[in-house]
Structure formats: C-alpha cells, structure tokens
Amino acid sequence: MKIVHRLLGILIAFCLMWILFITSIQAVVYWNPGYFEKEYTKYQVLDDLPPMTMEDLLDVTDEMMDYLKGDRADLHVTTTMGGETREFFNDREIAHMEDVRDLFLGAIFLRRVCLVVAVACLALLFGLKAKVRRVLPPALCLGTGLFFGILAVLAAIISTDFSKYFVVFHHIFFKNDLWILNPETDMLINIVPEGFFLDTAARIAGLYGALVLVLFGVSLFLSLRGRGKK
Hints:
The protein is mainly α. The chain has helices at about 1-30, 35-40, 55-70, 90-125, 130-160, 160-175, 185-190, 195-230; strands at about 80, 85. The chain contains 8 helices and 2 strands. A two-stranded antiparallel sheet has the order 1-2. Helix 1 (about 1-30) packs antiparallel against helix 4 and helix 5 packs antiparallel against helix 8 (about 195-230). The protein starts with a helix and ends with a helix. Keywords: Membrane, Transmembrane, Transmembrane helix.
C-alpha cells in the first residue's frame, strides 16, 4: 500500500510541474506589463516594418494575444501601416497562428486535466487513509526532482544551439511548413525575431525554475520535519 501512496504522490508532483510550467508561460507573456514594448524596442522591430507607430503595433499585439487564448474569434486585425489602412497579418500567418492557438489552448486544457488529476489523487490518498503529511512531502520531492531533472537536461541540450532546436520544436508540434515565414512579406516574423523567443524562453525558464525550487524546498522541509517527529 505504501508503494501506491508514493506513486499517487509522484503523480501529484508531475501534475503540479505541468501546472507551474503553463502558468509560467502565461505569467511571462500575459501578466508582465510592458514586456512586448520592451522587446520590440530592444530589437528595433519597427525598423523592419512599413511605417507604423509603436502604439498601433502594441494594439495589434494585444489582439493577437487575445486570439491565442481564445478571447478573439479570428486574427483579421486592421491597422495603419505606411499611411494606409490594411490587415496586419496575411493568410499564411493567420493559418500558422491557428495552429499556434490550438497548441496553446491544448496546453491550457491539459493544465486543467492535471489539476483535476492532482485533486483526485489527493482525495484518493485520504480515502486510503494514508498519512498524507508523511506520505506527500517525500513523494513531491521525488516527483519534482525527477521531472525537473529531465527538463534541466533538455534545457542544457537546447542551450547548446537554440536555433537548431527551435526548428526541431516546430517540426515536432506542427504538421505543415506554415511556420516558415518570409520577412519580406510576413509581418509576424519581423515583430518576433529569434532573439525575442530566446529572451522569452529564458524568462519562462527562470520563473519556472524558481517556482519549482520553492515547491521542492517546501516539500523537503516538511519531509525532514516529518522524519524528525517520527
């Protein structure tokens, strides 16, 4: 029975890791005021676009981000560029962003599933009359350590050649070549250059790592205190 208790605890840990990961992504790209303006300024993206204001570009970005989280029905966004009113995104970009939205919403859905699974596992532990205060912290330490260790290895590999693994990522998660954009005709690739993705990945990794370390630290503290009392 102790093995079952430990497995349930590890499963809870894995679910929490995914919940924290998706939450970290949301925190960086949605809950970080001024982030896009700062990145656009850093990489001087307006220089690679037909003449437009930063305010208009940020309005387009807001509409794009609303679309990705399902708060906007389509990505037909009209703005002023080069002194004329036109749609910012072309058909190819819109088709690619549909794939991106499906991926993002799928990750959000999986986070909800993980939350339900974690609560169900916790309820099952109580139902099995497990000593949750003794069983859960060590299991969380183990599960968190295993999951984070795997991610750390992946992060180390990716950091050796971000461009290469950025392409590999797209080949894995997209079944078409719509993500291959032309900077001469496609605005999307100009407003989010590779440096933007690198900065964003670094911020997500930093926040996620901090959250995981807090979870691991609390679990370790409770685990050691439980052993001391025992």
